[in-house]
Specification:
Its main location: cytoplasm. With about 325 residues, the protein is of the alpha/beta class. It is built from eleven helices and nine strands.
Length: about 325
């Protein structure tokens, strides 16, 4: 047992039943005692040991909007650009209908799926080549969807910036769209890094995607270059909140030290009953049709509150 586990948070140990956001009907936990244990580790460690790892599509963006309007994915934003060649959308749709069922097939081994994902990514890159394109088109479409971020996303990102918590937005989608939405929504603060697939250009024409390829099954911290500035920032931060809307997102913290304390939050919206067991087995907290950032914000608020208590206690003991 580590020394942290023998310590108590300032103000005493917190119980799950005393956190209203975690006792609502739509908030489900397979093992509340384990969630409680990790939350108390977070309180002891404070903001300086925290990092956030989040998916983008339907995690930072909503799974449904109030008016029932569809929220496009990051690739959907790109596909809506008017200047794309006529056959582009038809060909990308064909690829989607071929490879998407493979991506979500519950019976195919991951190692086999990876080969198909590489194939999909390579063919998509070939399609996204050889014609002129201006980023301003993405910006124009993305500007229509800044309202589609989960409720209280602005406050959540402001909290993260204020507390100096590094935030990694991991997306197997299109990074150009992700960055555009976040920037135009005024949440792309200096502590936020986007790791995704970005367009590349050659001689003024699109030339596929930059390396490395980010797909559903390598979207984790092992793809961070150990010499990168971001790796230096987070490799000692062993208290992690992971957020996603699909089962594969739960592995986004793979590659962090085994001693890390991680809370995985899963946003479940589609086919709730059919998916519930799988989500409950995969995520620590499952939020059913919750289109807000209230639960992660609650965790940050508790961490900040106890951090202030710790500072006050240290100040008193030094007097």
């Amino acid at each position: 047992m580590g020394c942290d586990e023998k310590r108590e948070p300032a103000g005493g140990r917190l119980r799950v039943q005393d956190i209203p956001a975690l006792t609502q009907d739509h908030c489900r936990m397979r093992d509340p005692a384990e969630v409680e244990r990790i939350i108390n580790e977070f309180l002891i460690g404070g903001p300086e040991r925290m990092q956030i790892v989040s998916d983008f599509d339907y995690t930072i963006t909503k799974q449904r909007t109030e008016d029932g309007g569809a929220v496009p994915s990051s690739f959907g934003i790109f596909n809506a650009c008017q200047s794309l060649p006529e056959n582009f959308k038809a060909e990308t749709d064909k690829l989607y209908h071929k490879y998407r069922p493979i991506e979500i097939d519950p019976h195919m081994p991951i190692a086999e799926k990876v080969q198909y994902m590489i194939e999909w990514w390579t063919k998509s890159g070939e399609l996204t080549s050889g014609f002129p394109f201006d980023q301003s088109e993405i910006d124009q479409i993305a500007s229509k969807y800044t309202h589609a971020l989960r409720d209280r996303t602005h406050e959540f990102f402001a909290d993260l910036q204020r507390l100096g918590i590094p935030t990694l937005v991991f997306s197997a989608g299109l990074g150009n769209s992700v960055v555009s939405v976040l920037r135009q929504a005024n949440v792309l603060h200096p502590n936020v890094k986007v790791v995704s697939n970005f367009l590349q250009f050659r001689d003024g024409l699109l030339d596929g995607f930059q390396q490395p390829m980010i797909h559903t099954f390598n979207k984790n911290e092992t793809v961070l270059n150990e010499t990168s500035e971001y790796y230096d920032l987070v490799h000692t931060r062993d208290h992690i909140i992971v957020m996603g809307d699909s089962i594969g997102d739960a592995d986004m913290a793979s590659g962090v030290p085994a001693s890390s304390h991680i809370i995985k939050i899963g946003f479940l919206f589609d086919h709730v009953e059919a998916n519930m067991k799988k989500y409950m087995d995969t995520f620590d907290i499952v939020l059913v049709d919750d289109q807000t950032m209230d639960v992660p914000r609650t965790l940050l608020s508790l961490i900040e509150k106890h951090h202030k208590l710790n500072l006050e206690a240290a100040k008193q003991s030094s007097l």
